[in-house]
Amino acid sequence: METLGEPGSAVKVVASRNGVIYEMRAGVPLPPMVTLTEVSKIYIRGSDRICGLDHVTLDIGSGSFCAFVGPSGCGKSTLLNVIAGLDLPTSGTIHLDGRSTAGYSSDDWTRTRRHSIGIVFQAFHLIPGLTVEENVAFPLLLRGEQGRKVRERVADVLALVRMTHRAAHRPGELSGGEQQRVAVARAIVHEPKILLADEPTGNLDSQHGAEIIGLLKTLVQEFGHTVLLVTHSAAAAEAADYVWAMRDGRLMTRTMQMTSAQGV
Ligand code: ADP
Ligand code: MG
């Protein structure tokens, strides 16, 4: 697994080249982790053409926390889905960690998700018949891993999300906030480079929502994850370093938060 230096240890500065942001850490530009070039997604429904994404160009550096905000139907989930290969763009190109995904087969996408991408959904999507521990271990078992290493890794991430005491419980016995903490643990157990979170606070009250957003921030600051958060909540987006507003499938404005900007 590629490491990103000492995440969170150095001052973040940003520089702009051709309007695209490159993050710097300790004076070294971080390589882009997610790059979209002119990505469009058109859905055909009967005789209607519905524009999910409209020529989206985006460059996200390793280890940044980005939020995408906008009203329902503006294309937020479509954006995450095409980055995860759960949906294919109609046109445009996507690079993940410097690699083009053009021509990826569904097996290639499955492998990419199993190794490099973690996803958290609004509805948690835990497997009801499995315990917390088994849910979190699931992505590792899918990759054929087993034994002590799996148990240790699961214990580590459960401790990180403060769910060790619930390891033997089933999802139905947990509150919404607890279920989402388990879902975050499951999404990071395989040490993905990219973590996608689609309205992760949508089913939670504000206190538990804030806890989940705090957890995402910790993953960026302490573990160097690259996090893309989709939300309709401006309050949730406040934790991110960069915030894009979306409308009608387009990226509108980008705001930088809590970073010092150079040459932008
Ligand atoms: P958001 O997540 O911001 O609420 P979505 O990305 O889900 O928005 O949807 C963007 C647009 O694409 C909406 O108009 C939606 O109806 C349409 N859309 C999304 N998925 C599909 C689909 N599978 N088939 C047809 N239209 C879709
Ligand atoms: Mg959505």
Description of the structure:
The chain has helices at 76-84, 106-116, 132-142, 148-160, 176-188, 206-223, 234-237; strands spanning 12-17, 20-25, 28-29, 32-45, 48-61, 65-69, 91-96, 99-100, 117-121, 194-198, 226-231, 242-247, 250-256, 260-262. With 264 residues, the chain is an alpha/beta fold. It has a domain at 64-88 and 106-257: Rossmann fold. The protein has a six-stranded mixed β-sheet, sandwiched between helices. Strands 3-2-1-14 form a four-stranded mixed β-sheet, with no helix packed on it. The chain has a four-stranded antiparallel β-sheet with strand order 5-4-7-8, with helices on one face. Strand 12 and strand 13 form a beta hairpin. Helix 3 (132-142) packs parallel to helix 5. The two termini are 32 Å apart. The site of adenosine-5'-diphosphate has 12 residues, from strand 4, strand 5 and helix 1.
In a few lines, what is going on in this structure?
It is built from 7 helices and 14 strands. It is α/β, with parallel strands linked by helices and 264 residues long. It has a domain at 64-88 and 106-257: P-loop containing nucleotide triphosphate hydrolases (Rossmann fold, 3-Layer(aba) Sandwich), CATH 3.40.50.
